Amino acid sequence: MITETKGYMSVNFLISQAKNIQIVIDENAAEIEALDQNIGDGDHIFNVQRGLKLVVELENDIKNLPLQKGLNMIAMKVLSGIGGSSGALFGTFFMSMAKTPDLDKNIDFNKACEMVITGINAMKERGKADVGEKTMMDVLIPVSEKLNELKNCNTDMNEGLSEIIKIAEDRMLATKDMLATKGRASFLGERAKGHIDPGARSSQLIIDTICKSLINK
Amino acid sequence: MKKFINNVDDFLKESLNGFGKAHSDIIKVNFEPNFISRKTKTKEGKVSLISGGGSGHEPMHGGFVGHGMLDAACPGFVFSAPTPDQMQAAAEHVDSGAGVLFIVKNYSGDIMNFQMGAEMYSGKNDSIITNDDVAVEDSTFTTGRRGVAATVLVEKIVGSLAENGGSLEECKKLGEKVNKNSGTMGVAFTSCTVPAAGKPTFDIGNDEMEFGVGIHGEPGRKREKIQPSKTIVNNMLEAILDDLKPQKNEKTLLFVNGMGGTPLTELYLIFDDACEILKSKGIEITRSLVGNYCTSLEMQGASITFLKCDEEILKNWDAPVHTAAMRWGM
Questions:
Q1: Which of the following is catalytic: B23, B61, B93, B216?
Q2: In B19-152, which ranges are E strands?
Q3: Using CB atoms, which residue from A43, A126, A181 is nearest to B80?
Q4: From the CA of A42, how many Å to the nearest CA of chain B?
Q5: Over the stretch A137-191, which tens digit does the pLDDT of each residue have?
Q6: pTM of the predicted structure, to 2 decimals
Q7: Superfamily assignment of B182-314 in CATH?
């Protein structure tokens, strides 16, 4: 088991992560937008930015709430405020995380992993997308699998997080040579090849930011 | 970007406000969550039809709310699917007890959000998914064909059946029939500019066209040099007829749709070309629709939709309709 650290997945943890992610996404917005314009229609970055802004703005409403309530409020905000595929998928992610049992107890690293795994599984179900289809799931599913591995073994936490960073990056880059079979890029056939999937890129940046903030914490 | 805008963040709200004011005799615009409903309550026993999708395709779908067509429409942000709470609120608002039929264009975001909306709505409901775009290969390896301009025809024809007492099951069946018997092909000369992006979605040369373009400016089958209208229309029709394989004496509806930036003059010219080409193939046009109904902001371009009609489809097409964008017979 990985070193137990107090305070994983508290409402404040989520808000502070959202703030960090907002900075990183803004820094990379032009790149993500360009990727989407190559193979999609260019709405992804605005949806992600709008979602992050909405979550950060929730701070005062949710900072004193128990985790489950906070997650549900984030889920509803994301679900009703974003739109597009991203809104449905990330809304589903938070909604499912909120359904993980025993959220009123202290959340250790293993429990936090379980929550994220539950959330990603629900996204997979909602989007009916698996790995190899040139979507954000190409990054998220392998990350979820790695988290599942980590929570059952005695890896050093920093090492585990570094591995996740590497997996997310490799899988994001791997979408470049894929044919899309889900989402708007799927309508392009061969022409989608040669472009990294924008959803995979934004998801990788999110994971990268969270993991880096936890390393050596 | 040259657009009539005050503030990008207020773009949708202000446009919806204007729509509500301009058509206050037919519809009402509801905010937070956003949906457009008829001014009058759904009559008891009538199935409610709800559609929706990203904004930027006006008059689709808000312009089709009214007698003989939709009961409500849920507009998302420009080119982004609406959110489940919009569909839930619209369903709760319009359902008179006979159930709700959601009409959804086949795009991943629309499918997911409408599914969640349907799950959140406690009343009886069902959905049909339109996928008329023949530019895209339909195979088990893709999301499938896109739902584009034939959605307008589905909404009109099913809207009439619902108005005349068709059950939820019958409405769904007719909608699926219209969708299955229609095919659409689009061509774009220029890109469109999403207000939030502030710049064109794609680059295209002065002498180029995108053949098989999607309604959000997604690339299509291929990029080509522009050609005379007759050649373009012939290629569009060939793609559609290959897919639909109409019989010689079959009754048909031909729908020439503008993408927003092409004048009606050109749309009628396209219609003329299409008539001649179809005539040479022994296909007669029984009904027609020409105009900007399923647009892509200010994109220059057009799509052609071909619908094979039987008596049921024709009868419901001809039935009275009174919406902001379509009105006849009343």
A1: B216
A2: 27-30, 35-38, 48-55, 66-67, 72-78, 100-105, 125-130
A3: A43
A4: 7
A5: 999 999 999 999 998 787 788 999 999 999 999 999 999 998 877 776 776 667 7
A6: 0.91
A7: Dihydroxyacetone kinase; domain 2 (3.30.1180.20)
Residues in CB range of A192: below 8 A, 6 or more apart: A39, A134, A178, A179, A180, A185, A186
Q: In terms of Cα–Cα distance, which of B294, B281, B200 is closest to B233?
A: B281
Backbone phi, psi, residue B230, to 5°: -55, -40
Overall fold of domain A11-214: 1.25.40
Domain ranges, ordered by start, for chain B: 11-180, 182-314
Per-residue pLDDT reduced to its tens digit, B67-124? 999 999 999 999 999 999 999 999 999 999 999 999 999 998 999 999 999 999 999 9
Rounded CA-CA distance A204/A176 in Å is 14
Q: Across the interface, which of B107, B197, B214 has its CB nearest the CB of A42?
A: B197
Interface test with A, best of B8, B86, B110, B112 (most A CBs within 10 A): B112
Tokens of A17: 């992560």
Structure tokens at B26: 């037919």
Which of A88-92, A156-160, B16-20, B249-253 shows the lowest per-residue confidence on average (mean pLDDT)? Answer: A156-160
CATH architecture of B11-180: 3-Layer(aba) Sandwich (3.40)
Closest-CA residue to B306 (of B249, B257, B268): B257
The Cα of A80 is separated from the nearest Cα of chain B by a number of Å equal to 5
For residue B122, what are the contacts with CB-CB under 8 A and spacing of at least 6?
A: none
B93 is catalytic: no
Place of tokens 């895209």: B136
Average pLDDT (B270-286) is 95
Q: What ipTM was assigned to the predicted interfaces of this complex?
A: 0.84
Q: In the prediction, which pLDDT does B140 show?
A: 47
In which band, very low, low, confident or very high, does the pLDDT at B196 lie, cut at 50, 70 and 90? confident
**How many interchain CB pairs under 8 A, A with B?**
119
Comparing alpha-carbon positions, the chain A residue that sits nearest to B216 is A41
Among A92-101, B193-202, B247-256, the least confident range: B193-202
Read off the DSSP letter of residue B252. Answer: E
